[in-house]
Amino acid sequence: MKEIYLDNSATTMVCQQAAEKALEIMTKKYGNPSSLHSKGFEAQQELEAAREAAASVLSAESSEIYFTSGGTESNNTAVFGAANALSRRGKKIVTTAFEHSSVLEAVQALEKKGFEAVYLMPDSKGRISSEALAKAVDKDTILVSIMVVNNETGAVQPIETVRRIIDRSGAPALFHADAVQAFGKLPIKPKKTGIDLLSASSHKIHGPKGAGILYIKKGVRIAPLHFGGEQEKKLRPGTEAVPLICAMGEAIKALPDMKEEMSFMKQLNDRCREKLMQIENVHINSDEDCLPYIINFSVRGIRSETMLHYLASKGIYVSSGSACAKGKKSHVLEAMGLSSELTDSAVRVSFSRYNTAEDVDELIKEVIYADNTLARSK
Description:
Helix content is 38%, strand content 14%. The chain is of the alpha/beta class. It has two domains: 4-13 and 257-373, Aspartate Aminotransferase, domain 1 (Alpha-Beta Complex), CATH 3.90.1150.10; 16-253, Aspartate Aminotransferase, domain 2 (3-Layer(aba) Sandwich). It has a seven-stranded mixed β-sheet with strand order 2-8-7-6-5-3-4, with helices on both faces. It has a three-stranded antiparallel β-sheet with strand order 9-10-12. α6 links the parallel β5 (141-147) and β6 (174-178).
């Protein structure tokens, strides 16, 4: 049975370049980058090469890139770090109701400590309005945290307006962007956009799990969450996961041209969307303006879990939403106002450069079969 992997927003297959680099570091350049001997210096050089690679994608300085264990740690560090550093200047945090759980749960934890949180609701397309954001941000706001691309629907947020809104309000707020689903896919330039903090993850771009980055704009100071070493300028102490970080660096270097890749993804997405629209019981939950790497749809009456298991039995792997939610009902689709019928049957398909038009056709064939044969929920 041919394997068709269409769950790339959850994780991606590690590319050959990244896998080879990880093995090289583990078996040949295995020194501790903090050691003063030549073996340590060798590892340190590899680490800095990965830092330069990440910085280049963001048109940032390498000194603005900090390594973490992934998107969750980057998001936690940004949210808690900013709140703790600026708590004397205000207690208000503005975010959205459809953020990743690593942002939402961090903000909720801060609420229990006396911070005020505003959760902006999306429209039916999954986007927040600049007007709602402007109304929410005031002089007491110390952090605005908005994801660039939603991980369940692919909805792209108007992040280019955030810095202007913050500045007009007179707020001391830092702007954090969760770019886990956008890094390497959209041309994000933090300096140009006014982003102070940005999160990204290795395993979303064909690198290994366990590595990520946090961009911190030069001059911005946040409070560390961990203590006990000089690594990463004391913001993230502890011996770095050099094989994983360097493999992430190779995955970054192997990223294809963004414009060409976007064109290819749009072809796949358009093909999938066009064929899904011909199936009577299908409702597409991702708007046409969403990032084409992701398309979310529902087959009315067939629960997500039922559809997922059926497709997996045919070697086709998709998801019902965020992998971190482990099957819980989507808070993203609920925030968009979708009915229980649609949220209970939602399926997320997410593409990578390794997918083909034939993969899409095989998916559609099995969705049609499932629609006609699987038992429907009552």
